[in-house]
Amino acid sequence: MKNGRRPNIKAIIRSIGALILLTVVIASASAEAAAPMSSLGEYPAEPSLEKGAQRKRLCVVSYDEYIPFSKQLYYILAGLEKLGWITEGSLPFDAESIEKDKLYVAELYHSLEEADLGPYLEFAPGACYYLAYEDEESIASDLKKRAANKDIDLIITTGTSAGVFVKNLGLKVPMVDYSATDPVSSGIIASANEGTGSPYVWAQVEPSLPLRQLKYYHSIKPFNNLGVIIYGDETISGVPDIETSAAEIGFDIVKYNIEEQPRESRQDKEAYYELVEDKFEEMSAENIDAFFLTVDLINDMEYLRPCLDHLYARDIPVYLMDDVSVVEAGALMLISANDMENVGHFVADVIARILNGSDAGSLPCVYTSAPSIYVNYDVAREIDYPLSFEFLSVCDRIFTAKRNKP
What we know:
Layout: H1 9-34, E1 56-62, H2 67-83, H3 95-101, H4 105-114, E2 121-130, H5 136-148, E3 154-158, H6 159-169, E4 175-178, E5 201-203, H7 209-220, E6 225-231, H8 239-250, E7 252-258, H9 266-284, E8 290-293, H10 304-312, E9 318-320, H11 324-329, E10 333-336, H12 340-355, E11 372-376, H13 377-382, H14 389-392, E12 397-399, E13 404-405
Parallel strand pairs: 1-2, 1-3, 3-4, 4-5, 6-7, 6-8, 8-9, 11-12
Antiparallel strand pairs: 10-11, 12-13
Helix pairs in contact: 1-7, 2-12, 7-8, 9-10
């Protein structure tokens, strides 16, 4: 990639092979993604409340401050708006403002509490919860009280921890979970295809996401030893799929684990990221030729490059599991299978049918997204990573220091 070098023919051939693989996957994923909408049952998606009926009340349970949760929640609400459950133009935020102003779920919820969303939906006052920052017994008590008093009609949960927490409460109120890494392995639902195991529980399933991602990454530039640093629960970080992909593709895993740490205060964060950076320095000394950055390890972008630089000093590429903003901040590449807009519409359709009377556990859970490709070109040059023109031409976004190219 440096001036004066001859084209790397093998790298170009590998990239073309990766493009062929991606094309096949995109075509099959698009076909799968379109299927579920036509099989969501007898209850309609459009609002069917009687005139003058009380608005349906929603609440949200999340784990911590995480922008992808916020963006996905926006697209679910946009889907409900498209279906007529929310008055057009009444949402008090959009996807751009969430990214620009770093609006987390609690901030979105507060603005939704105060907004007039129309005659069908509202958000229950004070009913947004963060498991990482609040006492779980108090959250459980409040949710049980609200459920008993019929103060809430549906609970939206974000990710694995929140989904498991609410499911285990056994409330007689429908819950809808999105963005969990593996809702079946984590116990939120019993099955992705044969009913969830409870009439009150539903979870969005993106089948084997880390497995598919690692196949893509390996096809672009094969690796023999993959490094991963896991924060907290291994299921949330996709370890079962990572191990499956290692056996299927043929590579070894070098894995470090970090127990959950307090990260709320500035002091807590600094202590935590000092620990994380130490782990990255240790990992850089291992015999790895690629690294997979999983969810929830680095959520604060000012700490990202000091950690990754230990790997980049040895030209080790850093691939992502989630969140395109991390590519912009300094990771090499994300092949994302999370089509937030269409996933949001899928989840919104499910919510609408539940509110109209469908059992949550009877509705389809699987939605396979078509992948998108994001690359940090400056990092690729820094570590001499082979990116052919053919590959770059199909990227959804290329980040550079001079400009961000859509």
